[in-house]
Amino acid sequence: MDFRILGPLEAEQDGRLLTLGGSKQRAVLALLLLHANEVVPRDRLIDELWGERAPETAATALQGYVSGLLKARGVERIVTRAPGYLLQVEPDALDLGRFERLMREGRECQICPVDVKYARVTLRCVRRVDLAGQAVTDRRSPTYAKLR
User: Fold this and answer.
1) Is 11 in contact with 17 (CB distance < 8 Å)?
2) How far apart are CA 45 and CA 58, in angstroms?
3) pTM value?
4) Strand, helix or coil at 13?
5) Contacts for 109-117 with beta carbons within 8 Å, 24 or more apart?
6) Domain locations along the chain
């Protein structure tokens, strides 16, 4: 199972992209991936999805979104754990985790500030788009600044 959050949100299993549902359901997955292997409280998820305008049915709707994700083959790694939900993700199954690991390894490499090998692998890892949606090669991109 491979999750991608840098660039378009995607989940891939056995070379096949999974159908992740509508925008709110995808947002739940993105929030759980940003906090992979941590419990994300229901109240926080509701606040992130609706802000101060949460409907009275928000908790039920959230359960429906999680249920929809559980039905997607491969995303069954979401577990209910008080006070919310936890998405179990292997260390290298999330592109953000791979990116952060490669950045750490690149910084620890004392050959030069940006080792060409790490830069190439890192750029492939983020698929040329950062969380803000800017191309990594765009000098205004926060990711570009980290690569320098």
Assistant:
1) yes
2) 10
3) 0.73
4) strand
5) 113/148, 114/147, 114/148
6) 2-87, 95-147
Contacts of 16 (CB under 8 A, 6+ apart): none
Contact assessment for residue 97 and residue 36, using Cβ atoms and an 8 Å cutoff: yes
For residue 76, the SS3 value is coil
More confident residue, 58 or 101: 58
* Token duo for residue 66: 């999680």
Strand, coil or helix: 87: strand
Q: How far apart are CA 60 and CA 140, in angstroms?
A: 41
Identify the helix (H) or strand (E) that includes residue 101: helix 95-108
For residue 144, the Cα-to-chain-centroid distance in whole angstroms is 19
Q: What is residue 86's three-state secondary structure?
A: strand
Output the six-digit token pair for 100: 């952060």
137 pLDDT exceeds 60?
Answer: no
pLDDT at 134 over 70: no
- Classify domain 2-87 by CATH architecture: Orthogonal Bundle (1.10)
